[in-house]
Design brief:
By secondary structure, the protein is of the alpha/beta class. The protein folds into two domains: 191 residues, Glycogen Phosphorylase B (Rossmann fold); 177 residues, Glycogen Phosphorylase B (Rossmann fold), CATH 3.40.50. Helices cover 43% and strands 17% of the residues. The protein has 15 helices and 13 strands. The strands form two sheets. The protein has a seven-stranded parallel β-sheet with strand order 3-2-1-4-5-6-7, sandwiched between helices. It is globular, with a radius of gyration of 21 Å. The chain binds ligand GMT. The site of ligand GMT has 19 residues, from helix 1.
């Protein structure tokens, strides 16, 4: 098949999933054209059967804001014509599904099929805002197929937008082999020390509640020689740094910044903390589990579909830092317990093997192509 993929190039789960999916599809023999407004983090090299097409910016004195959605639609039409695309798989309803539908209707002779994957923020935070709501709903209803990355997100989309069409649940995925490969040279130098390592990885948006990470760590530190590695960067990083100083744990907290490869740094972790306000799936929790790292997270969104409470980690109410610290100590305080959770994590992550999930996307592509004949 010939597939166009559009996603956000910034650091975030949806871009990672879209890029890895495209690479796996190309390895399976499909032609894949990525269309995005900047280079993709996980696409530093362009593999065989893959092409990348950047949506150019445009400025004109009269236009206060650059109409990205229209520029993207035009680019999709050009790339679809050039590469004879059959499928447009867009990751995020806003604005990509709307742009893809614009392209589909602007070039009817191409008979493009639009597959939209909902990742969360497009439904829970942005897409449901009155500014975007009518078009988000329309884009979901008009796509040839829609997928959601968890059952929770499926239910949320149906409820929030009163959706009547079917939505397939296709979970996010990992490559277990990538998490098993040691890569000592890939690990960034870290100055703080401790017997056990707690880790948080995110884009440090307020929704990640990174200050709760520091609070949980400070409680754990009262009982254990531990360090905390904060991986990633974003608007809430400064507040978390200040809190580490205020709580007297700054010498044991390392802000590592953005890392290109997540697997090597995960090999340093004994436990991942993910105290998010909401999380449609929590890809980083799955990546941690694939590396044998148990997870203490919040009982929100799709996280209970990923983290098995009491088996691969624990889930606590949002903001309950005492419960999260107690759970962390339960796992970290006993080597045998940690080993049990680590093994169960690795085992559970195999349920999300890309070989299974990529096949589910291929079946959806075939279905929408077949439906039209
Ligand atoms: O929240 C993020 O870190 C970024 C965001 C994104 O759009 O990339 O992540 C969303 O999509 C991921 C991939 O499907 C999910 O694992 C995240 O849970 C989801 N984030 C939220 O729902 C807040």
């Amino acid at each position: 098949m010939r597939i166009g993929i559009t996603c956000y190039p910034t650091h975030g789960g949806s871009g990672v999933v879209a890029t890895e999916l495209g690479k796996h599809l190309a390895r399976a023999g499909h032609e894949v054209a990525f269309i995005s407004y900047a280079a993709l983090l996980r696409l530093s090299e362009i593999p065989e059967r893959v092409s990348f097409h950047e949506v150019e910016g445009y400025s004109y004195p009269l236009l206060q804001n650059y109409p990205h959605g229209v520029a993207l639609a035009s680019k999709i039409v050009s790339v679809a014509r050039m590469r004879h695309l059959q499928i447009l798989h867009v990751h995020y309803a806003i604005p990509f599904a709307a742009s893809a539908l614009m392209a589909k209707y602007a070039a009817p002779e191409l008979d493009l099929k639009v597959v939209t994957t909902l990742h969360g923020t497009d439904i829970t935070l942005v897409g449901s805002d009155p500014t975007f709501r009518p078009i988000t709903r329309w884009a979901i209803e008009q796509s040839d197929a829609v997928t959601a990355v968890s059952q929770w997100l499926h239910d949320e989309a149906v409820k929030e937008f009163a959706i009547r069409r079917p939505i397939d649940v296709v979970y996010n995925f990992i490559d277990p082999e990538r998490h098993a490969r040691p890569c000592p040279g890939c690990i960034p130098p870290v100055s703080c020390s401790g017997e056990v390592t707690l880790m948080h990885i995110s884009n440090f948006r307020p929704v990640k509640r990174t200050e709760d990470v520091v609070r949980v760590f400070a409680r754990v530190r009262e009982h254990l020689e531990a360090r905390l590695l904060m991986v990633g960067d974003g608007p809430a990083a400064g507040a978390a740094q200040q809190l580490a100083v205020d709580l007297g744990v700054a010498d044991r907290v390392c802000f590592v910044g953005i890392v290109e490869q997540i697997e090597p740094i995960l090999q340093q972790a004994d436990l991942l903390l993910l105290p998010s306000e909401t999380e449609s799936f929590g890809l980083v929790a799955l990546e941690a589990m694939a590396s044998g790292v148990p997870v203490v997270a919040t009982h929100v969104g799709g996280l209970p579909e990923v983290v098995s409470h009491g088996e691969t980690g624990f889930l606590a109410p949002v903001g309950d830092v005492d419960a999260m610290a107690a759970y962390a100590l339960q796992i970290l305080g006993d080597r045998a317990v940690h080993r049990r959770f680590a093994d169960a994590s690795r085992e559970r992550a195999r349920l999300f093997d890309y070989r299974e999930i990529v096949g589910q996307y291929e079946a959806i592509y075939e279905r929408v192509l077949w439906q039209s004949h």
